[in-house]
Design goal:
- By secondary structure, the protein is mainly α.
- It is built from eleven helices and no strands.
- It has one domain.
- Helix 3 crosses helix 5 and helix 10 runs antiparallel to helix 11.
Length: 240
């Protein structure tokens, strides 16, 4: 199958030497979204309106702070804070009602509580990532069906983190059927469990090296067993 522009990021991820190619795809999207947010785009009215409205999740506001563009981040936070003050003043007019008695029905959330709950569910960077990430997953299954070389890439990769293993497992029946689905799930299981055992064995050897009986033995592939195990078990906790 001739490589198309939309297939390149997926193929590149599976060509990467990493513990989870889906994590690698996500990490690339996240890096691009952070760079975009802190680039010249923060001066554009349309983007500023979206960051004012959506804000950022805890993880990504920390990522923005680490970019060291203090002026850019200050400008983004200033207009976001202006909007928060204005909206929360309006929301505070909807006062919470007291609930008297032990068995009274719980009071409805206040305007303030509802506003903040909604704000916590949105993030400008998460939104940019997820819009493209979903297309990448669809492309993965398109390649599985149309590109005869792609199943070999999946077989030869180093497996997936538990999060993306489950995501592919549950998404597969919506994208494949019949023998295609059976083959994909069989290979997915084999790749996942084979590589989970590989990393787990490396972690066991890392632990053994702290036993005096093994102190003269080689480290083999265990020196980076902890970060690789974290990637496998905790999804995107560490960059690859």
């Amino acid at each position: 199958m001739k490589e198309q522009l939309y297939t390149i990021p997926v193929n590149d991820a599976f060509d990467t030497d990493c513990e989870c190619p889906i994590c690698a795809m996500y990490q690339s999207l996240e890096d691009n979204a952070i760079e975009y947010t802190m680039g010249p785009s923060y001066m554009e009215d349309d983007n500023r309106a979206m960051t004012d409205e959506m804000g950022f999740c805890r993880h990504h506001i920390r990522s923005l702070y680490e970019q060291k563009n203090r002026l850019g981040l200050a400008l983004i936070l200033k207009t976001h804070s202006d909007k928060l003050i204005k909206d929360l003043k309006a929301a505070s007019n909807q006062k919470p009602q007291s609930s008297n008695g032990l068995f009274k029905k719980a009071a409805a959330p206040s305007g303030v509580g509802s506003y903040v709950s909604k704000l916590e569910s949105t993030c400008f960077i998460c939104s940019r990532i997820n819009n493209t990430y979903d297309r990448y997953l669809n492309t993965l299954f398109h390649l599985w069906k149309k590109d005869s070389s792609f199943p070999s890439k999946v077989k030869q990769c180093k497996g997936f983190c538990v999060y993306h293993y489950a995501e592919l497992y549950d998404l597969a029946p919506t994208q494949l059927k019949g023998k295609e689905l059976e083959d994909f799930l069989r290979i997915l299981d084999d790749v996942f469990f084979t590589n989970m055992k590989r990393v787990n064995d490396d972690l066991e050897w890392f632990i053994n090296k702290y036993d005096y009986r093994y102190q003269d033995e080689p480290w083999k592939n265990s020196k980076d067993a902890i970060p690789r195990t974290i990637i496998k078990t905790n999804h995107q906790i560490l960059q690859q």
